[in-house]
């Protein structure tokens, strides 16, 4: 239960960190909050040759508003900072409401927002919410930068499009259109445990309370955050009634997801969770969007 | 073995200078280098919570940090709460309410709840249980811990 030896680097700027990642290549591993990496190292499931610790890179700790109304979160912003931030609560209440579900308080004091996203845990709440909210990742390397939709950021379990020399520096949440609201629902057998299934929804209603836009993403039904399409088709243009929501939730469970069976639950059980959670999340989001 | 790094860490108000391997966990640093064995190590992967200390005033799992990361920072361990002659109100309440049996989880419980009471001076049972989710106790069944936290909070609020 002790980590294997590694080389340790503690850069104080993004430039310096990117230089190090460039030199180290596949030998380098970023250390953010360490709430997932260090357990893996303690078990020696992970034995990185070198760690590039970002905890002294002050420029990566921030929450701010962009001129276009987006909300920008620096990669090293602590989870507790996001949890209690007033601007986040105002603009993205779904994030504020979900943060208490991410690990425990003593993990969130150290854990970081960007670390959570880049860790790409297939049962992670924040990746799924970020996909539903249409967030974009700002990625930098020594030689350049790119912006990637969170939808395209995930490749599989614990795998993202990040190259070894690249770093996630920021995530940007676009301002929600009027009459929009998001909601997240999950099911766990034990409070604070890994969710079996979770769903994040974002809905926009028109002035006649019809679904103008919807985005629905799942965790726990595949290897990465999964954005559903069939249930969205069922919703669009429909009046936001309980019947429309029920039909969409049924469609999600029957057509969109293809969950597996494991020791925690059968595929049928997971489909049922998808149905119930989708209905609850849509109902709550519609209620908030009408306000 | 990788190269040792010189660090300066303030623990319970006292400055310590040591030379450590980067792979040394903060929990092991506190116990083995500083001899402060009040901080316990249980699961060493961030689940049990018994290694909870305050890092720059916030409760963290000391098994999920490296000692090198504490360079220039401030750590408080359970030894900072009270002394046998002058217990912290939370320690006193744990004793009175039988909130411990074997005592293995106790340092983590105390560090978690001493911070929790600062944030929630008048906590509900639900808030206490929610806050306790990150600390495991295999003896008490938790009920007496909830009682102790309530009693300590009342006394600290001067009720």
Written overview of the protein:
The complex is a heterodimer of chains A (291) and B (159). Chain A is α+β, with helices and mostly antiparallel strands and 291 residues long. Chain A folds into 3 domains: 7-53, Uridine Diphospho-n-acetylenolpyruvylglucosamine Reductase, domain 2; 58-173, Uridine Diphospho-n-acetylenolpyruvylglucosamine Reductase, domain 3 (2-Layer Sandwich); 180-290, 2-Layer Sandwich (Enolase-like, domain 1), CATH 3.30.390. Helices cover 35% and strands 24% of the residues of chain A. Chain A has helices spanning 14-24, 37-42, 79-83, 86-91, 93-98, 105-108, 113-119, 125-132, 150-153, 230-235, 242-256, 267-290; strands at residues 7-9, 28-31, 50-53, 63-65, 71-74, 136-141, 144-149, 154-156, 159-160, 167-173, 180-187, 197-205, 211-219, 226-227. Chain A has a 5-stranded antiparallel beta sheet with strand order 4-5-10-6-7. In chain A, strands 11-12-13-14 form a 4-stranded antiparallel beta sheet, sandwiched between helices. Chain A has a 3-stranded parallel beta sheet with strand order 1-3-2, covered by helices on one side. In chain A, helix 11 runs antiparallel to helix 12. The N and C termini of chain A lie far apart (52 Å). The mean pLDDT of chain A is 96. The longest helix of chain B has 14 residues, at 106-119. Chain B is elongated and about 50 Å long. The N and C termini of chain B lie far apart (55 Å). Helices cover 33% and strands 16% of the residues of chain B. Chain B is an alpha+beta fold and 159 residues long. In chain B, helix 2 (89-96) crosses helix 5 (143-156). Chain B folds into 2 domains: 5-80, Beta-grasp domain (Ubiquitin-like (UB roll), Roll); 89-156, DNA polymerase, domain 1 (Orthogonal Bundle). Chain A binds chain B through residues 1-8, 10, 34-35, 38-39, 42-43, 51, 53, 55, 80, 100, 103-107, 109-110, 191-192, and chain B through 1-3, 5, 21-23, 25, 28, 44-46, 49, 52, 55, 58-61, 63-66, 68-69, 112, 130-131, 133-134.
């Amino acid at each position: 239960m002790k980590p294997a030896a590694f080389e340790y680097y503690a850069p104080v700027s993004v430039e310096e960190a990117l230089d190090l990642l460039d030199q180290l290549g596949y030998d380098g591993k970023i250390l953010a909050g360490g709430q997932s990496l260090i357990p893996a190292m303690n078990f020696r499931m992970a034995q990185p040759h070198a760690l590039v610790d970002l905890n002294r890179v002050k420029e990566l700790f921030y929450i701010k508003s962009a001129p276009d109304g987006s909300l920008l979160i620096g990669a090293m912003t602590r989870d507790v900072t996001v949890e209690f931030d007033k601007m986040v609560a105002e603009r993205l209440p779904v994030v504020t409401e979900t943060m208490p579900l991410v690990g425990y308080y003593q993990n969130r004091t150290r854990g970081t927002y960007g670390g959570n996203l880049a860790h790409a845990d297939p049962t992670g709440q924040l990746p799924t919410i970020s996909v539903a909210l249409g967030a974009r990742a700002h990625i930098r390397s020594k030689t350049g930068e790119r912006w990637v939709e969170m939808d395209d950021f995930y490749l599989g379990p614990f795998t993202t499009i990040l190259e070894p020399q690249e770093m996630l520096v920021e995530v940007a949440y676009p301002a929600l259109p009027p009459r929009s609201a998001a909601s997240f629902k999950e099911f766990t057998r034990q409070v604070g445990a890994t969710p079996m299934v979770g769903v994040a929804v974002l809905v926009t209603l028109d002035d006649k309370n019809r679904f103008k836009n919807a985005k629905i993403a799942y965790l726990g039904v595949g290897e990465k955050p999964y954005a559903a399409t069939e249930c969205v088709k069922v919703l669009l243009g429909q009046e936001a009634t309980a019947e429309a929501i029920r039909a969409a939730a049924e469609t999600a469970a029957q057509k969109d997801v293809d969950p597996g069976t494991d020791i925690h639950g059968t595929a049928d059980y997971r489909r049922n969770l998808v149905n119930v959670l989708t209905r609850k999340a849509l109902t709550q989001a519609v209620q908030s969007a009408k306000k | 073995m990788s190269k040792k790094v010189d660090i300066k860490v303030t623990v319970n108000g006292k400055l310590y200078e040591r030379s450590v391997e980067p792979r040394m966990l903060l929990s092991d640093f506190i116990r083995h280098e500083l001899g402060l064995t009040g901080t316990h190590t249980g699961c060493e992967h961030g689940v049990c919570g018994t290694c909870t200390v305050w890092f720059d005033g916030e409760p963290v799992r000391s098994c999920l940090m490296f000692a090198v990361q504490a360079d220039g920072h401030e750590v408080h361990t359970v030894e900072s709460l009270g002394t046998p002659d002058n217990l912290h109100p939370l320690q006193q309440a744990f004793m009175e309410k039988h909130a411990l049996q074997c005592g293995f989880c106790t340092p983590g419980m105390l560090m978690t709840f001493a911070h929790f009471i600062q944030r929630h001076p008048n906590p509900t049972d639900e808030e206490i249980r929610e806050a306790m989710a990150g600390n495991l106790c295999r003896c008490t069944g938790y009920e007496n811990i909830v009682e102790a936290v309530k009693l300590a909070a009342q006394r600290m609020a001067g009720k």
